[in-house]
């Protein structure tokens, strides 16, 4: 799907995603858990090549669900690029593209961390070894639909063409990706209340947005849910520190129960995600994140 996926060299690359999964010997059950076709058992690691191939198929599978089940639109950026230039795919609700068509008052930004992970996934390993509920943005898309949000799913790790290594304009880095999305889509959105989920290095992307667009950011952003985030919040002004103290939490990897308080860092209140592994923090903490957002929505009314 789009330029974001790594190009598979196998002969099955153009077959339907579910068929490719079946050929590899797997399927997802109704709970979005990956199971072996023969024994109905959970995934067992065989070799790195098959693991990477499976990860790429699942990435495409997730993005198909985002468009087909949840109805988000796949867009390719930058919008002003030439046809042969490399592009990055992102996903958003239709009303975010066409502001005259039922614009929303709330906007949800979903920003993942660094590495091989692409738009819609928090961690490929969690998708493979646990479930798509914990490893993807699906719970947040359900929440957005139920609460009338527009949605924008970032794709900050897709910075260059996989064949030529040519950098994608405006997407050379996490920060540049975020700034382009703000200037192109977020700024023009009619949503006056913005909610952010930022995992791992997504915290640093959020920092860039806050520092670059501070006057807009402080007026429109109502809540930030960090998950085991890399913040880069050094030498913040008192105004920014107070903003983060009032409007954000960071759910981190910990052996403590979910929401157990763990102090503060750079004015951000730190809570346990209820899981000891970094890559599981968003999938483990999402019920509390959604409660945090719901409480913030109530306070705006």
From TrEMBL:
One of its GO terms (molecular function) is siRNA binding. GO terms for cellular component: nucleus. GO terms for biological process: regulatory ncRNA-mediated heterochromatin formation. Residues 18-258 form the Arb2 domain. Signal peptide: none annotated. This is Arb2 domain-containing protein.
């Amino acid at each position: 799907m789009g330029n974001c996926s790594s190009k598979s060299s196998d002969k099955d690359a153009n077959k339907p995603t579910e068929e490719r999964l079946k050929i590899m010997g797997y399927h997802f059950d109704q709970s979005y858990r990956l199971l072996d076709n023969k024994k109905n058992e959970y995934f067992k690691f065989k070799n790195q090549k098959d693991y990477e191939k499976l990860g790429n198929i699942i990435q495409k599978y997730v993005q198909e669900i985002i468009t087909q089940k949840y109805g988000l639109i796949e867009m390719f950026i930058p919008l002003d690029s030439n046809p042969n230039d490399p592009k990055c795919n992102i996903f958003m609700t239709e009303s975010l593209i066409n502001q005259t068509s039922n614009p929303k008052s709330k906007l949800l930004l979903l920003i993942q961390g660094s590495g091989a992970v692409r738009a819609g996934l928090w961690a490929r390993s969690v998708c493979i070894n646990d479930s798509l509920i914990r490893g993807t943005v699906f719970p947040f898309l359900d929440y957005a639909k139920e609460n009338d949000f527009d949605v924008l799913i970032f794709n900050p790790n897709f910075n260059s063409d996989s064949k030529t290594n040519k950098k994608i304009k405006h997407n050379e880095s996490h920060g540049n990706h975020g700034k382009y999305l703000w200037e192109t889509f977020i700024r023009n959105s009619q949503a006056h209340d913005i909610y952010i989920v930022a995992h791992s290095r997504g915290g640093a992307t959020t920092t860039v947005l806050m520092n670059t667009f501070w006057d807009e950011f402080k007026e429109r952003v109502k809540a930030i849910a960090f998950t085991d985030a890399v913040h880069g919040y050094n030498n913040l002004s008192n105004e920014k520190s107070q903003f983060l103290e009032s409007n954000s939490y960071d759910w981190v990897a910990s052996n403590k129960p979910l929401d157990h308080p763990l102090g503060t860092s750079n004015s951000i209140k730190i809570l346990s995600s209820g899981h000891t592994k970094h890559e599981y923090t968003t999938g483990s903490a999402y019920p509390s994140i959604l409660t945090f957002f719901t409480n913030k929505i109530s306070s705006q009314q």
